Amino acid sequence: MSIRTLSLALLVVTACTERPLGDSEASAGGPTPETTETTGAPATTLPDASGSTSAEPTTEPLDPVTSTTAAPDPGTTGETSNGFITPPDGGGAHDDWCDQWVQDCPEGQKCMPWSGDGDSSWESLKCVDVVPDPDDVGEPCMVFGSGVRGEDTCDVGQMCWDVVDGVGTCIAMCVGSPDVPSCESPGATCHISGEGVLSLCIPSCDPLKQDCPGSDLCLPNPNDPANFLCVLDASGEEGQVFDPCEYMNACDPGLICVSPEFAGECDPAALGCCLPYCDNTLEPTDCPGQGLQCLPWFDLGTAPPGLEKLGLCGIPQP
User: Could you give the CA distance from residue 316 to residue 318 in angstroms, rounded to a whole number?
Assistant: First the structure.
């Protein structure tokens, strides 16, 4: 059994923040944690995209994920004293669902995922007004009100992602169709979650280099374990080697939350344990702990290009 099989049982924490990654809940500060089952590993979810600086566990799997503090919800257009741009009067939303794949809203509006039932996860779609001179992919952006309200300063086909204190970066939505999704942004992978409501082009990364922007973590995509995505760091002050964890993104950069059976220093009663990635071509291995080896992440001959050296520090499993 490959390491990735044992590790992907963990979901990703989706906290109340302005950024998604995982199921709809994961991105927006979510509900109670749901678990996805995989052999031998704890259940966890990816960070979410709502709006608070501290990530709180929710129930989504890899939802690159996001925690941030929601921006104020001003009532008039223009800038408030705190610098946030207020949305146009009325918000431009209606109760009818729209299609984010074709962006079928009236001119001047865009189709956006939002929380139609008032919780902290995305499960609905609606048309909202596009602000004048909207922000583009890769540019800083703002959200209006809650991170799951669906209103931000990004252009059509984009969403404000990785939001902290109401400010994030515009990220493109997937193009094509649910059956044949793709991304126009180079170096990005389409991630669909929230029962299809959330479809985002999340930047790909190298887990050995941890080359994500800011403090984001490079973790496997639960929907496509051969690809790694940048997700929110929900570790807080914890998340060091051998620390107990419950979510895939609850460990520091370069570590991942896996089953505690991989190291004797881990608490066997814990749901998960933070262990480091490693380069399986190095001799001797630089893994910490007693008897830990650099175990290949992928089965022989199955590693995608560029990830042939990827391993996990752990004790070999039967």
Answer: 7
Cβ proximity of 205 and 253 under 8 Å: no
Query: SS in 3 state form for the chain?
Result: CCHHHHHCCCCCCCCCCCCCEECHHHHCCCCCCCCCCCCCCCCCCCCCCCCCCCCCCCCCCEEECCCCCCCCCCCCCEECCCCCEECCCCCCCCCCCCCCCCCCCCCCEEEEEECCCCCCCCCEEEEEECCCCCECCCCEEEECCCCCCCCECECCCEEEEEEECCEEEEEEECEECCCCEECCCCCEEEEEECCCCEEEEEEECCCCCCCCCCCCEEEEECCEEEEEEEECCCCCCCCCCCCEECCCCCCCCCEEEECHHHCCCCCCCCCEEEEEEEECCCCCCCCCCCCCEEEECCCCCCCCCCCCCEEEEECCCC
Between CA 227 and CA 194 the distance in angstroms is 19
Task: Give the distance from CA 201 to its chain's centroid.
Answer: 11
Question: 3 pLDDT band (50/70/90 cuts)?
Answer: low
Distances, alpha carbon 237 to alpha carbons 55, 233, 240, 252, in Å: 11, 11, 9, 9
Torsion of CA 270, 33, 313, 275, to 10 degrees: -70
Amino acid making up residue 1: M
Tokens found for residue 197: 């409501």
Record the pTM. 0.63
For residue range 189-231, list pLDDT tens digits in order.
888 888 889 999 988 899 999 998 778 899 988 777 788 988 8
Q: Return the higher-pLDDT residue of 242 and 33.
A: 242
Distance between CA 121 and CA 154 in Å, rounded?
20
Count CA within 13 A, CB hemisphere, residue 261: 11
The model's pLDDT over 130-159, given as tens digits with 9 standing for 90+, comes to 999 999 998 999 999 877 889 999 999 999
